[in-house]
UniProtKB/TrEMBL annotation:
Binds 4 Cu cations per monomer. GO terms for biological process: lignin catabolic process. GO terms for cellular component: apoplast. It is found in: Secreted, Extracellular space, Apoplast. Its EC number is 1.10.3.2. Residues 44-158, 172-323, 433-568 form the Plastocyanin-like domain. Residues 1-28 form the signal peptide. Belongs to the multicopper oxidase family. This is Laccase. It comes from the Eukaryota.
Amino acid sequence: MEGLHKHFRLSMLLSLLIIACWMLPSSSSSSSSASPTSRRFRFNVEWKKVSRLCHTKALLTVNGEYPGPTIAVHEGDNVEIKVTNRVEENTTIHWHGIRQFRTGWADGPAYISQCPIRGGQSYTYKFTVVDQRGTLLWHAHYSWQRASVYGAFIIYPRMPHPFSSPPIRAEIPIIFGEWWNSDVDSVENEMIKYGAGPISSDAYTINGLPGPLYPCSNKDTFIQTVEFGKTYMLRIINAALNDEIFFAIANHTLTAVEIDAVYTKPFFTTAIMIAPGQTTTMLMTANQVPDRSGMFAMAARPYLTSVFPFNNSTSLGFLRYKKLGSGKIKSLNSLQVHNLPLMEDTAFATKFSDNLRSLASAQFPCNVPKSIDKRVIVIISLNLQDCPKNETCKGFNGKRFYASMNNQSFVRPPTSILESHYKNLTTGIFSSDFPEKPPNAFNYTGVDPLTENMNTEFGTKLLVVPYGTSIEIVLQDTSFLNAENHPIHVHGHNFFIVGRGFGNFDQAKHPVEYNLVDPPERNTVAVPSGGWAAIRIKADNPGVWFVHCHLEEHTTWGLAMGFIVKNGPGPSQTVIPPPQDLPLC
């Protein structure tokens, strides 16, 4: 294990610096009674040569960092992030989970809320962090750039944490990602050209480091030093491109306290399942006695629900107990993570999700809509399209893979939908007739894919709702090609997961079983494989918002939709005017 310790000093320093920055007084006003603080950051999107797994390649980064820099702000802050694109490719950045009240111009998805930032140009994202506290993330939202362009977004609360006892010694950011030895642009382009599935990643990473189970990676291993008896806050983020992740630390119990920057009722668990785009904050007390090495392994591996080719490897990192043991590992076999679920452990994934509940206290209430104005049922499908004449298609049976919602495969227009909507220039850009139910009712999770027509329709159809609408969206998986767990992310809004289950949603049966007391509040829901999830949203944020699967291959295939929340009657219920430096298409 020579060279294994290269990164543990850096990781410990990072966690201590984050705590220190949190405790320092702001250079402006940071008290809740004073004017909001403005926090400014600079992002330079640039190439950086990075080596992993015996391969060196040019990697797209922010400020030359992989993963990218942490954004740390306080609840109520005004935030300005100037992004300068120093490469020839277009780019955008999305502040994943930030609700962007009236500031959809700063949301980031290319051709939805903005035109991309062209090479050599800059754009300043401006927004205010309102009534959110905890762990989120940021990432590129153009093409597959988020394979390497991502980082943590931390919001420190105005009021003390409701779980501040015992005292938290330090914060430990844990960000999952994926590494390709190949050029990721080439992987995406090949997939689009031939309609096939993408090649799998070559490694999973913890804070950009694959760990010792991969070639040439002993030195590229995440090691975090901890002190016996101290409690640590783990800010866990899944920034992986195409995989849900199981994570565990050998012999240690974790306490869930927050998901997607929303406090939860605490519960103990030996592992977690986290989907791409989700965040989970856990407390961990370093109360175990290590062996002679002084080390405990932490491990991340995929949660498998797909029949498509996938990366079945495992990323390892380590806890090193300070002043206990040698800090040297003679054999990886002695550091097993027996509490890590198996890759196909749907029972564990379901139990973990079922244990998540909103805190629902007087100070942090659960404002789930008790009644709704509209219910929309959306079926999630993987599709097979007949191969066009004179083309080569490498999908199943010589066809092309696509994906859809209610048999609509989303097509991004050549310009910004939000800008078109704001200027009432909608003709030829999008239409307002997204179907509110499947075109045909059938046994969604019992279909035989070999006997069905799995072609889809293509377009840019949006759902339009008035300001203040309480809407329920039932997300129903199908067994076209493959029943699969789909992490669906909603931009611009949090939502409440009031119900979920396996099989087909029954409108007469399931709503009476909803949890309307303390359902989990999130921005990304893992729709069960071969099942459904019902989410409720208060559509109180005017603008155009993207809804899509956070498995990037599925979004590329068209598993997305958008919805428009109309302006409300009041001056504070309308989209603000576009900024002067908004990029042009």
